[in-house]
Hints:
Blueprint: E1 5-18, E2 22-28, E3 33-38, E4 57-63, E5 70-78, H1 81-85, H2 87-103, H3 111-124, H4 130-144, E6 167-169, E7 174-176, E8 188-189, H5 192-203, H6 206-209, H7 216-234, H8 240-251
Antiparallel strand pairs: 1-2, 1-4, 2-3, 4-5, 6-7, 6-8
Helix pairs in contact: 2-3, 2-4, 2-8, 3-4, 4-5, 4-7, 5-7
Amino acid sequence: xxxxxxxxxxxxxxxIDVGEADRIVTILTPQRKIIATARGVRKTQSKLSGHLELLxxxxxxLAVGKTRDVLTQSxxxxxxxxxxxxxxxxxxxxxxxxxxxxLLADEDAAAQVYELCLVALxxxxxxxxxxxxxxxxxxxxxxxxxxxxxxxxxxxxARTLDxxxxxxxxxxxxxxxxxxxxxxxxxxxxxxxxFKVLRLVQRExxxxxxxxxxxxxxxxxxxxxxxxxxxxxxxxxxxxxxxLDDVRSQTF
Length: 252
């Protein structure tokens, strides 16, 4: 009986070298996240070489394997070359890839995440605000996988939040109204500007939020809040975050 083959589109999220010439490749597809073997891909004559670059959007053919599927064909349809031309955009792309791999479980449906990831990578290529693109993607990704924070109603009493709300509690699940401040004595006090950015990246389109003018200190606080939110649900730090921060500090 011949190999069982299937085709799909996919975004390359992660690559690990194994053996003398193979790679283990993590791929985000419209159906699910796949971890597959690319045999001999590191050989110079490999037909797969150059078509499985990190963050590439590819058309793939795989053979069903006993323990792990095997990549047999790949054609890169989008390489997002602009991400490779500017260090901060490249660092942001790596952050998106690791964040996606961390938050999306192998068995999770991936259609929404796949579309979000494509939108974010395409926008990153030309975005005037890399930070807002990352805030938006992080928030939308959390929403897609079931980790949506409460930003409209108080996370404790469910009263509608107004501009007096200034406490963020990852423990309670979002923003707190003044009456519920004692529910988490370690809640983070945030400015109205930070609260507004969190709300905007949760409810508005990426094309809208990247045009907003936001102060550097607001970006810094939003990054801290969202990273801690992710860590609370995954118990894993995003390792590429430090690289991104180092690059941003040298760029801006």
